[in-house]
Amino acid sequence: MKYTAEHKSLPVHKEGKEIYQIHFENDFEKLESYLSELDVKTKKLCIVTDSNVGALYAGTLTGILEKVCARVTVFTFPAGEENKTLDTVRNLYEHLILEHFDRKDMLVALGGGVVGDLTGYAAATYLRGISFIQVPTSLLAQVDSSIGGKTGVDFDRYKNMVGAFHQPKMVYMNMSALKTLPDEQFYCGMGEILKHGLIKDAGYYEWVIERMSEITERDSQTLLDMVEISCKIKRRVVEQDPYEKGDRALLNFGHTIGHAIEKLKNFELLHGQCVALGYVAAAHISWKRELLSTEEFFEIRDMNVGFDLPVSFSGLDSKDILDATKLDKKMEAGQIKFILLKGIGRAYIDKTVTDEEILAAVDFLNAEIEDENE
Length: 374
Ligand SMILES: NC(=O)c1ccc[n+]([C@@H]2O[C@H](COP(=O)([O-])OP(=O)(O)OC[C@H]3O[C@@H](n4cnc5c(N)ncnc54)[C@H](O)[C@@H]3O)[C@@H](O)[C@H]2O)c1
Ligand SMILES: [Zn+2]
Fold this sequence. Notes:
Blueprint: E1 10-14, E2 17-25, H1 31-37, E3 44-50, H2 51-66, E4 71-77, H3 86-98, E5 106-111, H4 113-125, E6 131-136, H5 139-145, E7 150-155, E8 158-165, E9 170-174, H6 183-200, H7 202-210, H8 212-216, H9 220-240, H10 255-264, H11 271-288, H12 294-306, H13 318-327, E10 331-332, E11 335-336, E12 338-341, E13 347-350, H14 355-365
Parallel strand pairs: 2-9, 3-4, 3-5, 5-6
Antiparallel strand pairs: 1-2, 7-8, 10-11, 12-13
Helix pairs in contact: 3-4, 5-6, 5-9, 6-7, 6-9, 6-11, 10-11, 10-13, 11-12, 11-14, 13-14
The structure holds nicotinamide-adenine-dinucleotide (NAD) and zinc ion.
């Protein structure tokens, strides 16, 4: 893997056939011509966005889309994971029905992962499926959620419990949108980026660590390189396994315990923060099995500090986290599908993780338990 970006559009394939392109741009200018290529002249387009992103970018985007399609409408819902629900999807269906959207029309997901997941799910199900494009505006959505066609919503606080695979027709990234992203959200994206290195590419992991100061200063060239490299890693994984029958599950590194913490904290902690805690826990299990050295394990943990991600939680019982982990949907025949590391950049699926191992890892993160290693 080369660690310099080529700044070209990236095609994504399924079963050897190109299905869409990921475009990396510094403004919205080229969206017009890329959309024209999708033959939208007679289509109605609905921009789906949240209250934060809509206030910043929906106006500009509407102006651009109006030039190339038949009509543009905007559906805005309140920002936040707590709104990634079937209730919001219901309101969106209602909007589409009232606006007479039919099968040939298209949705435009403008926002972070919440908007992308929800819009993709509505697109997968409205009239048995209409097309959509992704315009990801958070770092996390750019490097992770906008690529790969996994869509869905939370149900009764169970993360991503209802969903569908539905591929976008295009992913268009305006890198300059990251300028308005709050710091805390920016670092959540870093959680998923570090994850990419940890599971698949030790060289990239080192690359990110070496550029910590450029990244935290949001140097635009470094961010562009980083987003492109991360997209290539994610693309490689989803192309090899579009429906998560095998290796794609590696992307869930950190998500098994992470989702449990996210749910028990009632979404007070952000997704990327929970994932970062979750992968320290998974690394802990790997370390205790002597698959990672002590040095490697503590470097993984300490990188969270460098990128302003948590290394501990409080206010939760470790046993409750264990129980919630076992309720997560990544179970197969009663056994949790855990992602562990047998070295930096080398993740694998393990179905033999015991309750004791999970508890020890969670206790390590639990700020209220005297830490065995401090
Ligand atoms: N489908 C997948 O494969 C996949 C992968 C990873 C994560 N996810 C999902 O993604 C979600 C998390 O995504 P997220 O972290 O982007 O959360 P998010 O969509 O809630 O966005 C984070 C916050 O940043 C704001 N925001 C986004 N872009 C902005 C910008 N440019 N300027 C100012 N504010 C901006 C949003 O309004 C929101 O308040 C979770 O629901 C997670 O389950 C899905
Ligand atoms: Zn995630």
